[in-house]
Amino acid sequence: MAHITKNFPEPTVETKKFWNHCKKQELLIQQCMACSHYQFYPRIICTTCMNRNVTWVRATGLGKIKMYTIIHRPISKAYSAPYAVALIQLAEGPMMMSNIINCDLDELAIGMGVKVAFEKWSEEITIPQFEPILTKDSLAEI
Predict the structure, then answer these.
(1) Residues 6 or more apart in contact with residue 115 via CB below 8 angstroms
(2) How far is CA 66 from the centre of its chain?
(3) pLDDT (tens digit, 9 = 90+) per residue, 21-39?
(4) Is residue 109 within a helix (H) or strand (E), and if so which, with residue range?
(5) What's this model's pTM, rounded to 2 decimal places?
(6) For the chain, which domains are there?
(7) What is the 3-class SS of 13-34, one letter each residue?
(8) Is residue 60 within 8 Å of residue 141, measured between CB atoms?
C-alpha cells in the first residue's frame, strides 16, 4: 500500500529512539529508574515520581483492548475505511493508542488480547499496530 499521502509522525528528541526501534520491529516504552514506573508516551520525567532518570526498555508487545471505535469515514483518501482505532493497555501497564489490524472488525471486543505488529510506511517510519492474539495460552501472559 502506498503510504506517501498519510499523516506521518515526526520524530522528536524525546521520540527518536522509539521510532528507530520500531524500524527494527521492537516496541519500546519508558521506565523510571527511581520508582520502576512504566510510561508511554515518551516524556523527560517520570509521571509518577517526577524523577528525570527514565530509560527505554523493550515492551512485550502484548496488551488488551480497553476501548475502541470503528472509523467509517477516513480523514483522507490515503486511508481505507472502515478501520479500528483502539486504546491498548500494554502488559506493562501504560496505555497506547493504535490501530487494530488483521481481524474482522465485528469480532473486536473490550478486553480482547492483542500483540504488536509493525507496518513499514517509509525508510524512516515503521508504525506499531496491534492484531488479535489467537490462542488462549497467549492471553495468560497479559
Answers:
(1) 61, 62, 63, 130, 131, 133, 138
(2) 13
(3) 999 999 999 999 999 999 9
(4) none
(5) 0.87
(6) 16-139 (2.40.50.840)
(7) CCCHHHHHHHHCCCCEEEEECC
(8) yes
